[in-house]
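=== How it folds ===
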Amino acid sequence: RLGAADVDAEETGCLVAQCPFSGLAAFDRGSECARIADESKGKLMRQVVLIEIGMGVDLQGQDATKASVRAVRDAIGRIYLPGLRPFMTGGAERVEIVVRLAVPDGAGKPDPEAVRSAFPHRPATIEMVPGGMLTPNGLGDGHICIVNAAVEVAVQQ
């Protein structure tokens, strides 16, 4: 793991001096403060400030949408970022939410609009990847659908 002292701004293109978390000694910017650099310009484009994981289950209907919405609600039910407000010069429109859903094959494709409706204030980008699980429901007539969600909150620079 890299610590703050190990990051070379010239070498990585990371603008460490401009990192809003530079004053937080306990925050290891080398791993938790993810940066995505614009390859052509070497400038900071977005900074991931939080990733939360959730799990959602539809016990009887094998409904990937229900399980996905439950996974997102599980993840965002633990998110509260009061410390982010002082760094939000430029407004809340700089906040970007990306949701990655791990959905099992055979469960169908979740409805992205239904998943977006789980976010009370901000629109979200929804990405789907293979994963999750379908497991027998024990009754012999269907499966339990399990979906995992990774909710990423980033600030546009």
Q: What stands out?
A: Confidence is low (pLDDT under 50) at residues 1-43. The longest helix spans residues 64-76.
